[in-house]
Amino acid sequence: MNRGLSNRGIKASKTIMRVDMEAYFEAIQNLYDKNENPNGTFPLNMAENKLSWHLLKDKIQAISREKDIPEWVAGYTSGKGSSSFREAAAHFLSECLAGIDLDPELLAFSAGATSVVEMTALVLGDEGDVMAVPAPCYPVYKQDVANIANMERYDIITHHDISEIKNGLILNIDHLEHTKKEIESQGKRFKMLALTNPDNPTGGLFSYKKLLEVAEWCIENEVHLIVNEIYGLSLIDTTHPAIAADYSSELPFVSFIQIMKDKQSDYLHWWYSLSKDFGISGFRMGATYSYNEAFINAYENINYSHLTSNYTQWIMEEVFKDLDFVKKYIATNQRLLTEAYVIVIQKLRELNIEYVPSRGSLFIWADFSKFLTENTLEAERAFWSLFYEKTGILLTPGEGFGHTKRGLYRIVYPFFGSEALEVAMKRLENFVKNN
Ligand SMILES: Cc1ncc(COP(=O)(O)O)c(C=O)c1O
Q: How remote is the CA of residue 135 from the centroid of ligand 1, in Å?
């Protein structure tokens, strides 16, 4: 029964956003608390950083208390976001992420990266066109490019075992050529390639050299390359003595905006969001940047339904104007992320659970395949449920990440403070010792 819905509506009514969403909402009703709920749950599946909100909250409360709301907040603004907000945001991005000046006119904002991906797909792709991503990759891209633009997702398989990417992410020109051939052999167009840097779920980084090589291939083949730097400021201190041995070489994060500025190509674009680096997914603020003016104009003209509210823009404009505060926030946040990361890594090492050493993001991509009863999706699902039942820890299932190997799960380490995270790790240890 379609109950009067469109074909699109019927499909949407039956497609859950992600397989672990229901379990997450159940788990947060029963959260662990040392005093109030010591047997409670640890949802370590949702990409949220809870470590630094207290810092930002104080700042935002002070702004709300002390500042007068400007007139423009109540009215319509540009479809890219208000000009004063974009100026403050461009300055923040130049100073804290990109290392070079950004032009606020080439910057547009929507309600979170989810909206930005949807809008980008709508502007760049036609129905049936394909966006490729290296696997494993953020599951929800699949819906984001399909919901409105009706584009498809293609997962590029670059490796099978975690051990192959311990020293860095893999993506070479052969993979891109093969992807192009495969997509075209199905009568479809390879329209977009999206890279997440730092990566979700592996925490790996693409080097400047690699990004340049891929960008040049994309320009030559007229494939739009978009680099999503949503975790660009959530970097791990890889020199920390407890984890330094995991990294055979230094690999600094370099923003893709530098390559975009050099190339000035219509085929290179950038995505960002405040959801992760600032722990404010509820603010719904994502961004895109591009030197392709036709892309930005199209985006502006159809973005009203996706725009972040002016009130939120104003609050963040005031935050960005205080760059001393923002820089201190970023430094503290990175320190807290590293401390939490170390707690989990030390336990995984002790228990001989393989993981990909992360350089950034909120994740550890770990291999629990030895606990699976067989190498199947059913066994992977069964382990995920069993593990939650026995430990109260909800992992992100590997299902939907588009990867070939079963038994890989994602751990979100900054959802709880150190003390609680230690308790979660103790429960993991007890599980491993009894299974
Ligand atoms: C790679 C990536 N892109 C986009 C999003 C969605 O972000 P937002 O909450 O800003 O819509 C996420 C959230 O986990 C993500 O990991």
A: 16
Pick the residue whose CA is nearest to atom 13 on ligand 1.
47
CA distance 413 to 51: 10
Distance between CA 216 and CA 77 in Å, rounded?
Answer: 36
Radius of gyration over alpha carbons of the chain, in Å?
21
C-alpha torsion angle, residues 154, 23, 202, 93 (rounded to 10): 90
pLDDT of 126 over the 80 cut:
yes
DSSP code at position 97:
I
Q: Which domains are delineated in the chain?
A: 7-54+327-434 (3.90.1150.10), 69-322 (3.40.640.10)
Output the average pLDDT for the chain: 96
pLDDT at residue 15 in the model: 83
How many whole angstroms from 231 Cα to the centroid of ligand 1? 9
Q: What b-and-e string marks burial along 318-328, b requiring 16 or more CB atoms within 10 Å of the CB?
A: bbbebeebbee
Nearest ligand 1 atom, CA 112: 10
Q: Which of 227, 233, 275 to mutate to test the pocket of ligand 1 (most atoms within 8 A of CB)?
A: 275
d(CA 197, CA 364): 15
- Ligand 1 near 200 CB (within 6 A): yes
pLDDT in tens, 170-224: 999 999 999 999 999 999 999 999 999 999 999 999 999 999 999 999 999 999 9
Which of 20, 21, 115, 140 is the pocket-test mutation for ligand 1 (most atoms within 8 Å of CB)? Answer: 140
DSSP letter string over 56-93?
HHHHHHHHHHHSPPPGGGGS---TT--HHHHHHHHHHH
| Residue 139: partners with Cβ closer than 8 Å, 6 or more residues away | 18, 399, 400, 401, 402
Record the tokens describing residue 302, joined without a space.
Answer: 């159809």
Mutation test residue for ligand 1: of 276, 277, 358, the one with most atoms within 8 Å of CB: 276
- What is the Cα–Cα distance from 435 to 430, expressed in whole angstroms? 9
Beta carbon of 45 within 6 Å of any ligand 1 atom = no
C-alpha triplet 195, 201, 202: angle, nearest 5°: 85
The percentage of residues in the chain with a pLDDT greater than 90, rounded to a whole number, is 95
Among 375, 379, 408, 409, residue whose Cα is nearest residue 394: 409
